[in-house]
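User: Sequence in, structure out. Go.
Assistant: Echoing your sequence, followed by the structure tokens.
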Amino acid sequence: PLDGSSNAGRALALAIDMTKNYDASLVLLHALLRSADSAALRRFAEIEGLSKHVEPEVRRLQSTEDRLGLNLGEAYEDMAISSRPLIDIGQHILDNAESNAKQKGITHIDTLLVDGDPADQILRCIEERDVDCVIMGSRGLSDIKGLFLGSVSHKVMNRAPCTCIAVK
């Protein structure tokens, strides 16, 4: 699972290394960042050169946060930001990860761009693809939400039937 965070990047590096060493297949999954707050999306878009494309939607999200007096994504995620910028960000994350894996010699790579609760989507992928091991960042772009509702990695590690490695 990838969300663009630095911990997810470190998890990807470990996953690529393990994939090479065990001649395994690599499944890269990104769940749309619906619960990330505007500041996290803005930072990510700036770092990845996507600001011009994403900024109008991020401004709308910030406006909604300001009106609600919140900074917790989930309370307004359905009404705040359209899917197109989130899809573009997700595809960018997956494309970069796939390119990185290919440069390191990985040839069996599947990429999945999904929408829905990230933990549920990861668990669904594990089941549908009979995954042996999940390597994921321990904290992602939605840290504030995770403090209150539990992190995605924590939920996956407690419910997954396979080995889970959390990287920080």
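User: And one key feature?
Assistant: The chain has a mean pLDDT of 82.
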